[in-house]
Predict the structure.
Amino acid sequence: MNNHGTRLIIIGGGEDKKADKEILKEVVKRSGDKDSKIAVITTATNYPLEVGEEYKHLFYDLGVEKVDTINIKNRQEANRKQIFKSLEGITCIFFVGGDQLRISSILGGTDFHKYIYELMEKGVIIAGTSAGASMMSEVMVVDGEEEGAPKKSAIRLASGMGFLKGVIIDQHFNQRGRIGRLLGAVAQNPYPLGMGIDEDTAIAVNDKDEIEVIGSGVVTIVDGKEIEYTNISEQYPNEPLVITNVKVHILPNKYGFNLRDRKAIIHEIKSRN
């Protein structure tokens, strides 16, 4: 089924669907290649039929054996046992983009949520793009101010689905100027790592809590564990954010990061000279 030790594939949105399709190919390859069976969860989007069909065609074009789309619209559906039958034999569960609060509020704490954890234990890969990326962490970015100088009020957080512990994920990262809001999230929650994933970029997380970057952009990791001072908890939410002694890592394709010891994994590129 999953021979790479990969548990999660978290995509920053805007993955290439026309040319090389590098990230979607990687999802298929790590999920069992020609034997992969993918369930596309469309709960996040207001256009479940259209988005579901789009990913169905994409995955079938990449040689996937079976693709099912599942649109869970409310918590009652998420607690029905029949839904589990549609996941029998699945090697990857793929969450599409849309609104991450729809995923967490409709699926969070339900029998379906618990069942996904059971499937993860059995080696099924959980993948998601855009909103399907944000919901992976325990603390989830809901929205916030983009671009502009970081402000104390620039971020709204909620509980995510908790598939990846110890991180806060933001997506469409550099394309939408979201460094300020990620810094605000880390100032509020200094221990989890802030992780900003660019468009057409993903991280694959293995069972040793190591990530590998895939795609054309970069992953920005903000480590606030050693923050010396921040004014995030003080009055006046529209004041500029003060935050000192933050560590930042920028990692492109093939580079990695160990989430347990909070260190980058460097693959030296040999000089061509």
